[in-house]
Every structure is written in structure tokens, then in C-alpha cells.
Predict the 3D structure of the following.
Amino acid sequence: MAEVKLDQIGYWSEIKLDIVRKYATAYSTVLTKRKEIRSHVYIDAFAGAGTHISKTTGKYVPGSPLNALLVKPPFREYHFIDLDGGRASLLREMSADRQDVTVYEGDCNTTLLEKVFPRVRYKEYKRALCLLDPYGLNLNWEVIRTAGQERSIEIFLNFMVMDMNMNILKHNRSKVRPDQIERMNAFWGDESWKDDAYERSLGLFGAIEEKSTNETLAGAFRKRLKEVAGFKFVPDPVPMRNTSGAVIYYLFFASPNQTGAKIVTEIFDTYRNAGVC
């Protein structure tokens, strides 16, 4: 097998991993105590190689799959997905002694809908925590909507606003390539993002169109998670930044469960109140 280059991650990515790890522990603790729940599973749709390298320290950092495998009490099942064959092989090696782990090599947009989500039906008293952490706009709305409609799945979602700003949300819309617009349509689910991404006003020489702020767009997506995808509880997302302080993406949490939303809100606020976010 060819050598797989591990991702180097910055401070904010380490914060994200910590947030997900803390909630995964709380989630598994709560679900384990609920006797009516037959199974609770952990899903990582863009799992990577399982390990990263810290840009800050140069040391190895456990990725979300490894963090999940170390959660106590454990989940009943783990489903890791990655499009890259080398990364999928590393995940298999990492979990070779675990009978509760399934690794998929392929596109999560089809794998989740066809193979994983059907295993966590609400009426079968099964529940899931799903991490949707794409590298860019590589996630289809149908996955998000299906998770919301299932009522058995809670998600963490990477809302990649930097990718949007660089490739789609340009001041001059005529310069945006059609394939980039299609990527945004696939992620958002339709073309309604155009109404939220631009603000219009009347100037001295006619109508003026300006880009909306990152916060406005994230707020519109939060509303969409509730009203279109059907998640009952969507706390304010956490902005994740680069070393210059610019927002790279927003970390969303969406759930059918008020308890989960309350726990995540407290975790999010811990970082906000500490001045981290």
C-alpha cells in the first residue's frame, strides 16, 4: 500500500475534535442508560486516516474515528467512510481487532443513504451520532435532509463558508463558473441560497447588490436545518477560524433531541466564554 500523507491540522481543528469528543462521550453515556434503545452508533462520513499531525506541536493528534473508539461507555457500532482508498486502508488497520467497526471506501453521499442510515431507524429504537466534516462543498443536501427526517440521527456539520466565499459568493456573480454553482446547489439543496447570499438595496443610481455577511448566511442555513431538513433543535453554530482570525467554517449541531442540543450548547459556550471562539 502506498504511503498515506497525514493531514496537518491547526488549532481550530483540534478544538473541533475536542468538541465532538466531549459530546460523543456524553451521548454514549446517556444512550447506554436508556434501556429501550437497542443500539447507538457513531458515523464519520469523511473519516480520514484516523490520525493527524498538529501544526502547532508537530505531534500526532487522534482523529475523530480514534477518539470515538476510545469513548467510554462504547458505542454499539462504528461506521467510518472515506473516498480515499489509502485512508480507508489505514482505518481498517487501526480497527482490525474490532468487530464493531465497518469501514467503507467510497462516496459518503451514497454510502450513508444506501448502507448506513438504514441501520439506524427510529422505529427500531436505534440512534446515531453522525459527523459530517467535508474538506469543502462535497456533501449533498439529501444526506442532511434524510438525517433530519429519520428523527434518529444527530449531526455535527462543517459549513464550509470559506469555500463558498472563494469559489461561489463573488461580488460579480457573472464570474462564477457553472460547476461551482452546481456544487452550491447540491449542498444547499436548491438555488434559494442566492436570496440569502446577497442583499439588495436602492441607491442613487438604481438597485445595489452586495454580499451578505458570513453570519447572515450561516443564520439562513440554520433556519433551513430546522424548517426544511426537520431538525427540531439547532443551536447557534461555532465559528472556526484560521491564524488570521478569518472564519473558515461554522460547526453546526442539529438534533431531534432537546437534551443533546442543551449539552452541545453548553460545550459550545465553554469555548465562547473562554474567548476561544
Observations:
- The chain has ten helices and twelve strands.
